[in-house]
Design goal:
With 43 residues, the protein is an all-alpha fold. It is 88% helix and 0% strand. It has one domain (3-42). It is built from two helices and no strands. The longest helix has 26 residues, at 3-28. The mean pLDDT is 86.
């Protein structure tokens, strides 16, 4: 495997990990979750 292919594969893997983490945080920190979390702390 050449050096350029290895760099390209790591870049694609990093982009895939960034997309997965972005969508997981976006789904986890949804508005209804934050409202329920604030209500549980307030009560």
């Amino acid at each position: 495997m050449t050096q350029s292919r290895r760099i390209l594969m790591w870049a694609l893997l990093a982009a895939l990990a960034a997309l997965i983490s972005y969508f997981s945080f976006r789904g986890y920190l949804g508005p209804e979750f934050l409202i329920n979390f604030a209500n549980s702390l307030y009560c």
